[in-house]
Amino acid sequence: NFVVDGFTHTAELKDVVAVAKQHDLPVINDLGSGCLVDTRQYGLRQEPQVQSSISDGATLTLFSGDKLIGGPQAGLIAGEQKWVERVSKHPLARAVRIDKVTLSAMSSTLVAYLTGTHEKEIPIWNMISLSESILANRAEKWQSKTGAGTVERARSTIGGGSLPGQTLPTYVLVIDYKGSAQKFVRCLRESPVAVVARIENNRIILDPRTVLPDQDDAVIETIKFALNKCY
User: pLDDT digit string (tens) for 190-231?
Assistant: First the structure.
């Protein structure tokens, strides 16, 4: 969730693996978030990939099932079979194992990567992969259907539990509310379908990148609700 600027240095995984082999030791690489695709293709800084960790020799690689993987909250362990089996037999494994519902959701998420449908089926990658033209069209639709605000270029913050400080270009609907911006966003949250907007310089910002396409109509109705309630 943070960025360290300035001079930093860390040992390369391959170097750690080489030293570990000399002493017959396993190497556990905790990626924190972890990712299964190359984030550079979306104009983002490269996030450590699970596949690279394994190919570079990590005995076990630890990563999250949510965040950039886009599945349910879970901790995943991948690597050499004998070590994975050893972990699974640890007395604590039964206490922290996921339930069947979470396992099913996690399996479906991973299948989307295997079939190459992750951009369509996993919300985080659907949002990240949206083109500027699509975002502009959606923002303009919000504006024309509500008669409120203006469409402007902006930056979407990816952030969250991974990709700290990373942004992507987007188009947003900007509403200059003459009263309290806090009051307007509260109206948005208190509508039948709650919408959470952000405030910049006392202006309300609504970013279509953070909304799934099939939710556009709900957002439009919520904006109308807030306009009627607050004005």
Answer: 999 999 999 999 999 999 999 999 999 999 999 999 999 876
Claim to verify: residue 69 and residue 85 sit in the same structural domain: yes
DSSP, collapsed to helix, strand or coil, labels residue 43 as coil
pLDDT digits (tens, 9 = 90+) for 74-120: 999 999 999 999 999 999 999 999 999 999 999 999 999 999 999 99
114 lies in the same domain as 163: no
Q: In terms of DSSP bridges, do strands 28-30 and 60-64 run parallel, antiparallel, or are they unpaired?
A: parallel
CB neighbour burial string for 91-104, b if at least 16 within 10 angstroms, e if fewer: eeeeeeebeeeeee
Strands 75-79 and 150-157: unpaired
Determine the structural domain holding residue 27 and report its residue range: 13-125
Taking the C-alpha atoms of residue 6 and residue 9, their distance in angstroms, rounded to an integer, is 10
More confident residue, 46 or 230: 46
Half-sphere exposure of 8 (CA within 13 A, CB side): 6
DSSP β-ladder status, 60-64 and 75-79 = antiparallel
Q: Buried b vs exposed e over 122-141: b needs ≥16 C-beta within 10 Å? A: bebbbbbbbeeeebbebbeb
Find the Cα–Cα–Cα–Cα dihedral 169, 175, 181, 183, rounded to 10°. -120
